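Cross-posting from the modeling subforum.

Setting up a comparison between two proteins and wanted a second pair of eyes on the formatting. Protein 1 (sequence, then structure tokens):
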Amino acid sequence: MSSTAEATPLPANWSKRPYHRKWLLDQANGLFDFFQTAAINPKGGFYDLARDGSPLSTDNPIRGIHASARMVHCYAIGDLLGRPGAADVVDHGMRYLWRKHRDEKNGGYFWQLNDDGVADGSKQGYGHAFVLLAASSAKTIGHPLADRMLEDITEVLETKFWEQRHGAIAEEFSEDWQPVAGYRGQNSNMHLTEALMAAFEATGEQHYLDKAIRIADLLINRRAREEAFRVPEHFNEEWVVDRDYYHPNEMFRPAGTTPGHWLEWTRLILQLWTLSGKQNSWMPEAARGLFYQSMLLGWDRNQGGFFYTLDWDNVPAKTFKLWWPLCEGAAAGHFLNYHQGTILNEDQYRKIWNFIANHSIDQTFGGWHEELTEDLLPSNSLFPGKGDIYHALQACLIPLFPAEGSLTKMIAEHPLVD
């Protein structure tokens, strides 16, 4: 090389630098390695893992449907990338979902199983949303159960959960489909929005996208806009905000507001805007508002990281730091950089990844710490170990692809090259 040759300049955008992109791919591979064999339960489904990567419990452990479905989704992504062994994980999960979680008598999918059978037979909107995501992702790699599961879960969502009058799904039913009255939740509908977009991409069927737009309009264009783009979590059956709602399960239904979900919606809204032909002008505005409020109100300016919840006066309520809001913040930052690139968005993206690198990645055992105290020490007050690859894996891979669709679609259309 000539000494007078000009060096190739680094991209001004930090997130596009080759080292950063390689670092992200290395982190994704580390997550795949951490879960791929250790999480396989030979009796069906998947183990939750302890900090050291061993099964958290082997004595008749509970298997939640969302965990099984997320593993299917993530290892379908791995197979699309070309990862050896990933398709076997998908097959293990799909067979468990279809043969065990599916209720052959009443229809739908059981919430929790153990070695003996059904541990909790309730029919949860949250769980069914992830079944749709799993089936959609499995279809992209040609799994033989995918089409049957897609047809089945679509019918269940349409005939049991979907409430046309509101444009969203009901939350919960008993095992034999008796309604559990009095509550509607944004979390299940948010994840259904993600799954509906994946189903639209996998099948080309417009009705999936139409439902996603209706959910987003209700929860973001109306309810979140009414709260200055703070996303309410809990509602009554008429979708009126319930500010005093309390439920003992604070993993899925924490009181107050949850900035991590505002970040998650930032990404989903911009993806929905793209898939719907950029026709809904309120969506980019909403995405900016959601991300701005998340960083303004949810970020701990002293220690870093996102508070888990705020009260309705924007005061931090549950001050420990979870990994998944950081993951959603990184993905949201990429989507905003891609569609509305500014120095501010780039700085926030960089700030989030700096925190993750310094505090969330477990340099001793691998995987990510799912929970830190407010003072950034690993803890397990809410999450008992390392039970989930889904959020962290997507955070690492989403920035490597155009922000125009689900990872499964983007990987198929934009393969990674050196």
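Protein 2 (same layout):
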Amino acid sequence: MTLTRLIPAAFALALMATPAVAQTAQTEAPRWSFAIHGGAGVIERDSLSPEQDAAYRAALTRALEAGQAILSRGGTAMDAVQAAIQIMEDDPLFNAGRGAVFTAAGRNELDAAVMDGSNLTAGSVAGLTTTRHPIAAARAVMDQSPHVMLIGPGADAFAASVGLEQVEPSFFFTERRWQGLETALRARNLPIPSRPAGAPGPQAAIDEGQSPPLNERKFGTVGAVALDQSGNLAAGTSTGGMTAKRWGRVGDVPVIGAGTYASNADGCAVSATGDGEYFIRATVARDICAGIAAETAVSPEARARQRQASACPADEICLSHPRNPDFVVIDRELAQVEALGGSGGVIVMTRSGDAWLHMNTSGMYRGAVSSTEPARVGIYANEPPR
């Protein structure tokens, strides 16, 4: 597995194939901290052109800047999470919102969830087809309804009733994702549906110069975790699901405790990306937070000794020591997913502002920024610090 730990004093965004961290002596805890992901999977250097690589890094940077702008002026963790995810939902590079993949029936069905660590309120939606920003719908379920999860046409109707922007389903159409659907259906000997109403014709010009190849085989969830200046944590996740999914399939993203979780009491916020069925079965997000809370309950002196034993020398990169409590918790959860047959990644924010980015895949679109460190982004698992 590959682990990247983004700590306030040294944001090293990716390391070698073995678990590693970069750390320097900490002189100032961050007043706020923020991390994002844009999906994990088989993402290798030779699969992206220089233009595609640059486009992803620019998109991640824009999302980071949106969260940074809110947190730096004292805004809430939840507002930062929503702002960054909405930017990624509008970017066709990501499998969320406008770049969502298609179901076997030729539809875009969108899922999202948010959770506020300050009071354990949460909201999620599944199977949206007309709400432009699913993450905003999840936030509205949390803030403006007595419920936690809404699905299908009812979720879209609720989103419209509270004033969220509605669009024609063709708004989410991209030619690249449609071609990906056709490829997947042919491979399974399944019928190819008619193109959605309002979609451009098959002969329309396709501007794919900065898009990834159709066989990218990544889990295109987007997500964010944040710590604000009031010490509150929040998490959010949004996805278009799986290409050619059938029968109303829903993955881990809108399942609170599987793909999304945040708790001030636990000192943890998590957004996951990967094989949703396995993340659900392993209750990954909640278990990570529970594990971190249990480790935090150890006496401060003992925890300080654990962290010191696993620390790297200043300004160096070294292997994570197995006694590092945060590493052990996160590694254990993704190991369980892998043992079940799944793969993917997580981003985890702690109450101290440490951001961990962990994956058991060859890459994950990701980034982080804090009040003490500038924005950094990464793509490949073996990517050196930038």
